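>> received
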Amino acid sequence: MDKKTIKKAFEAVDAKLDAALNLLVGGGAAMLLGHGIPLSTHDVDGLPLDSKISAAKFDVIAKEVAKDLGISAQWYNDYFNSFTYTLPADFRDRLKEVYRGKKLVVKVLGAEDLLIMKCMAGREKDIGHARALIRRGANLQMVERHLEELARKGIVRAKDAVLFLEDLMMEIEDA
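>> returned
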């Protein structure tokens, strides 16, 4: 999905809502919409926040939008919700609004929070994304402190995330 298709999907969602909805977006869509990182993504990783609309109801709306626009039925997924527990308590302070309709407001994670999630995932495809976030000025000290705190708490994959970030930081120093 490109930026134009995602925005059309948000407009279509907005038209179907019967109540206000704040949607949190992470992953590639957040990098594209909120941080100017040119990439294509298969889906929008999202999570309804502060809403009377449940995730299940939003999923039904998203599927209707997919049918209406002729896009993948999986254009939206809330799988990343499974990993939001790794975000700092103050992540909402860094959210960036990328869309405002009549009822739908879409905000994306800040660069630091996206970088934390990319480090926690630690996949090969996350390396380039993490580099791009670093080039866009993500606060590495804040990210490093948070990942180290997660590791001290024994959070699964946090030690690997610290090493992932350290490898990226060494690359930057060597460049």
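>> The chain has two domains: 3-109, 113-174.
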